[in-house]
Amino acid sequence: MTQSIWRMPRWFHQMGSPKWFYDFGGILQPWFAVVAFVLLTWGVVWGLAYAPADYQQGNSFRIMYVHVPAAILSQSIFLGMAVAGAIGLIWKMKLAFMVARSCIAIGATFTIIALLTGAIWGKPTWGAYWVWDARLTSTLVLLFLYAGVMALNQAISERQVAGKATAILAIVGTINIPIIKYSVEWWNTLHQSSSFTLTSKPSMPADMYLPLLLTVLGSYCLFALVVLMRTRTQILQTQSGTSWLAQHRDITGA
Amino acid sequence: MYFESLDALLNMAGHGPYVWSCYGLFVALLGINIWHARSQNLKALKQAKALVRRNQ
Amino acid sequence: MIKFMLAIVRRDILLVARQPAEMINPLVFFVLVVALFPLGVSPEASLLSEVAAGVIWVAAMLATLLSLELLFKLDHDDGSLEQLLLAPYPSWTLVLAKVFVHWLVSGLPLILISPLIATMLFLPTHAVPALMLSLLLGTPTLSLLGAIGAALVTGVRGGGMLLTLLILPLYVPVIIFGSSSVAAAAQGMAVDGYIALLAAMFVFALMITPWAAGSALKL
Question: pTM value?
Answer without folding.
Answer: 0.91
